[in-house]
Write a structure and sequence with these properties.
By secondary structure, this protein is mainly alpha-helical. It has 4 helices and no strands. The longest helix is centred in the middle third of the chain and has 33 residues, at 22-54. 75% of the residues lie in helices and 0% in strands. The chain has one domain (2-91).
Length: 105
Amino acid sequence: MILGAGFALVAAVPTMRRADTRGTTYERLRRTVGRAILLGLEVLIIADIIRTILVDQTPQSVVVLGGIVAIRIALSFSLEVEIDGVWPWAKWRVADTPPQDSQGE
């Protein structure tokens, strides 16, 4: 997560220096850092699952893992809504074209 945020900041510096892209730099930086955090949360979920499977296979550890995964999924979901500004199931509303139905109309 720290590396992703660092790369995003380094990539944002040239666009901040240009007057024509300066206005959108903050939004791009914010999205990129948010995506790095989302990726980090997904990696942490995978690491917790692997640790529970390989190291500690007790019912208590599975319940703790379930709680941790639920919290991280809620964080990921809320962060994605914050980044995109819409609910995941409503993204087609802000897209240029509406989604195609299954009949190809």
